[in-house]
Amino acid sequence: MDHGFFRVISPARFCELLSAFQAVGSEDVPLDDCLGRVLAADVPAGENIPAVDRSCMDGYAVRAAETFGASEGNPGYLELMRSAAIDEVVSHPLGAGECMGIATGGTLPPGADAVIMVEHTQMLGETTVEIRKTATPGENVMLAGEDVAVGDVALPAGRRLRPQDVGLLAALGRTSLNVFRLPRCGIVSTGDELVPVDAAPRPGQVRDVNSHTLACLARQTGALARNHGLVPDVREALRRALAESLAENDAVIISGGSSIGTRDLTIEVLESFEDAEILAHGVSISPGKPTILARVGGKPVLGLPGQVTSAQVVMLVFGQPLLRHLGGEAGAFDPGGRVMRRAVLGANLSSKPGREDYVRVRLEDRDGRLTAMPRLGKSGLLRTMLDADGLLRLDASLEGLTAGRDVDVWIF
Questions:
Q1: Would you tell me how many other CB atoms lie within 10 Å of the CB of residue 182?
Q2: N or C terminus: fewer CB in 10 A for the chain?
Q3: Which of 215, 302, 266, 269 lies closest to 18, judged by CA?
Q4: Distances (CA, A) of 223 to 18, 208, 216, 400
Q5: How far is Cα 321 from Cα 183, in angstroms, rounded to an integer?
Q6: pTM for this structure?
Q7: What is the pLDDT of residues 182-215, one digit of tens each?
């Protein structure tokens, strides 16, 4: 079949196609194993956190209105009702003109609505407390339900759990959570010229780089990555490797075989599967234009260029968001989730309108200003990625950027 040259689509359309794939299933895991996992369902709050009004400081629980006007030069005076232990719940209300000694974390007595820090007080005799600062209602107090209230969604589905999220879940008494399982990603590296890393390449051969870098990039998203070996540019060998990878994984990344000359072989093999559909074979980015996207048995197959820099850039721009999406993460394709740094462009850049350019840049301190210095080079060289701290995206509408302007750098 003659597929012609690239039928190029926009990056936005490419992401739309990727986002149509369904997330993987879910599983219950213990709380201590939840870090970095993605919630498969909303977590409702079955109780208030904090459960009661609690003090944030060591000091005295007071009625804020009774401290108004108090200062170092014009102190107020309250009678100490008593001091309460941190784990004590006081049922007797605070009377007019009274205060109660309280520790950090202690429960406020009825009637109290603020806490004066001990540093702003002075004991006069056995029971009189001199107040040297005005308190406002709610000052130094954690209100009941201030973190989360009964019936609230404590944490939403699609959230990747951070240590502080696990802390909230612990406060709610959750011992296990329903999370998306980790997506399984198969990596197939193709090319007659490839040899394993422990081999000595002959002229015309190179050690396999992409299997290892792409697996690392997949694992950065939390996915489980497995290399399925090196595959020559032979139809039967590629089909066997792809069939094995599809059977064992939720997504497959093919490295190589997407550029002119070998692209038709990859597409031919993909189309040989009964339930296959080629969704795209060309996307308007540089590097990475000859990228393939297919659906086989409902699973995504992403065909990356064999050039090492192109493969890594496409994996960053499309592959990692796809794996996060398959893992249930909300907003996986939102560029707003990228780690960005503001910098000054250190050199002029040219660009071809109609495509998005991803320029490798290094961040340097020049005369006290963070400067983005382009690291230009051929996509078959490793050096431009090794020397770079991130990517500078040039919109498809641009013909270039001039040195000295502010830019946002996407940090690797």
A1: 21
A2: N
A3: 302
A4: 16, 21, 10, 36
A5: 12
A6: 0.89
A7: 999 999 999 999 999 999 999 999 999 999 999 9
